[in-house]
Structures are given as C-alpha cells and as structure tokens.
Design goal:
binds guanosine-5'-triphosphate, 2 domains, two-stranded antiparallel sheet, Spore Coat Polysaccharide Biosynthesis Protein SpsA, Chain A, binds magnesium ion, 292 residues
C-alpha cells in the first residue's frame, strides 16, 4: 500500500509498511534529554492515515530544526501501531479507552518540553506544526490552538451541523463562561508546554478533554493563542465523535466548571429577594405592632 503526500516539493510516495526513513532511525537513538518537542497522536483504528501523520510530523520537526519525538497513543485493533512504528513513532498503549485518556497517557510518556497534539485521521496537516510552536517558543502564548475557523475548512471536512451549529455554539458558551476568546474550542491540533498541561491537571477521558484544556487555561489566566490552520476531510477509518453524546459531554463539563458565572447571578438575586421579603415582613410586623 502506498500513500501519496501532496504538497509542493514535499510530494513523496511512502511505503506504509516499509522501513523507517533516516530521520526515524536517527530519532530512535535520540537521547530523551535532548528532546524539545513531543508530538502526541491518539489513534483508534487509523491504519490508512497514521503513516502519513507520523511521516509529516517527523518531516516538520526536521524542517524546523526541533529535536523531537513522535508518540502514538494507540488502542487500535488494526495495523495502526505496526505502521506507526515502521515510520519511527514510539507507540504506547493506554490501559483505558478514550480520546482524553489517550492524551493523558501519551503526554505522561513525552520527553519534550513542548507537546504538539493532533489526530491520526489525516484531518490536520502536521507540516503546519511549526506555526503552533512559534508563539510558544517566543513566549507569546501558553497554549496555542490551530483554528480551523480562522483558517480554512476544506469541502466535506466538517459536517454542516458541526460547522454552523455545534462548534460555534459550544465555543460561544465557553467564551461566555470563561472569557477564553477563542474561535475554535474543539480543534484537535494544539501545542503547549508539557509543564502547562501538567499544571492544568486535566481530568476528562473523553472528547470533552479538548474543552477542559481551553476553559482551565482561560480560568487560570494563561495566554491562549490561535493560529489559522487548514482542516482536511478524514481519509480513512471511522469518526469516533458522536455528535449528540459528545456535544452533551462538552456542555456538561462547562456547566460543572462554571459555578461562579452560572450560579452566582441567580444565587445573588435570590439572596437579595430573600432579604427584601424578610425586611418587608419585619416592617409589616412593626407597623401592625404600632397600630395595635
Ligand atoms: N487511543 C485512542 N485514540 C482515540 C480514541 N478515540 C478517538 N481516538 C483518536 O483521537 C483522534 C480524534 O478522534 P476523531 O474520531 O478523529 O474525532 P474528531 O476529530 O472529533 O472527529 P472527525 O471530525 O470525524 O475527525 C483520532 O486520531 C482517533 O483515532 C480512543 O479511545 N483511544
Ligand atoms: Mg479527527
């Protein structure tokens, strides 16, 4: 099987189950202490696209001059882990299922100071990775999100409902409750310092991990930056995202984490109404006592 990577002078044909390239071999012998960037990719049955993702991540590291590693956090039942390894990724196997859990597990195994995150389904172009790293390295941001809405969403890359309703609505709720100021809270292409991710102490195991990261970063006053990226149609495997149940998990998480904004105004209003009622009844009792 071969995959053609389109894209200017980088166009190359890859043999998916072939020998790793020179960069992969070099990375295998890399001293963990020298790793600057860990690219962490969660995968669940993504055999058609994982080779290209690992290849592009390694290419982006080489082109940008970062010393790096690619970690694939895999729960697949197909050939995804073998293919990832053949391209020079380090494969780790999370002991539980879940998109968020795969990141907890993968990040724990990362040696890099910086962590880049992205899907294994070919929807994000890992060659765009340096754009995410630059604001981090320059100290302009603590968390950088690749925004599909500020960049380009290719035809058929995102269902109409997600593009025009789900993503904008959930992003708006997150901005309202947590003042995050982002355009694409659910983009899966991100970068942060490993220490920042640890500091956020993320708990979610499912897709809502993406929302938790942004809301906690905003909550803690971290600088959340965005760079425009291009979002491509999924080219293999099956989507693991369930529109309704995952949408609800994102919303539920925001409601749980937003007690101050959500409950304080009605709570204060009820408190003052209670005070007013008490004062009025006290006043009424005094008047009745005077009249008696
Ligand atoms: N290890 C692991 N990876 C997972 C799990 N669930 C999803 N993934 C991976 O996480 C990434 C995101 O899942 P997707 O199905 O692409 O979800 P999405 O990007 O929201 O939806 P699409 O728009 O359909 O791509 C993909 O690389 C999946 O293979 C899981 O339980 N374990
Ligand atoms: Mg995806």
């Amino acid at each position: 099987m071969s995959i053609r990577i389109a894209g200017g002078n980088l166009a190359e044909t890859l043999i998916v189950k072939g020998k790793p390239g020179a960069e992969a071999e070099a990375a295998e012998g890399l001293n963990p202490g020298l790793v600057e960037v860990s690219v962490v990719i969660p995968s669940l049955n993504e055999a058609e696209t994982i080779g290209e993702c690992v290849y592009k991540a390694k290419k982006a590291l080489a082109l940008s001059g970062f010393k790096g590693e690619v970690i694939v956090a895999d729960n697949s039942e197909d050939e995804t882990p073998e293919i990832a390894e053949s391209f020079g990724a380090r494969v780790v196997t999370p002991d539980k299922r879940g998109y968020g859990y795969a990141y907890h597990y993968g990040v724990k195994h990362a040696h890099g100071k910086y962590v880049v995150m992205g899907d294994a389904d070919g929807t994000y172009d890992f060659l765009e990775m340096p754009k995410l790293l630059e604001p981090l390295v320059r100290g302009e941001a603590d968390l950088v999100i690749g925004s599909r809405f500020r960049g380009e969403i290719k035809k058929d890359a995102m269902p109409w409902l997600h593009k025009h309703v789900g993503n904008p609505a959930l992003t708006a709720v997150l901005n309202l409750f947590f003042k995050a100021g982002v355009s694409d809270a659910h983009s899966g292409f991100r970068a942060a310092r490993k220490s920042t991710l640890e500091r956020l102490s993320l708990k979610s195991h499912g897709m809502e991990y993406a929302s938790e990261m942004v809301l906690k970063a905003a909550w803690k006053g971290l600088k959340v930056g965005e760079v425009p990226i291009t979002y491509h149609p999924r080219r293999g495997g099956k989507p693991k995202l369930n529109t309704l149940s995952d949408g609800w998990r994102h919303l539920k998480l925001m409601l749980i984490y937003a007690p101050a904004r959500l409950y304080l105004p009605p709570g204060l209003a009820l408190y003052f109404i209670g005070l007013l009622v008490k004062a009025l009844s006290h006043f009424k009792a005094r008047v009745q006592a005077l009249m008696a």
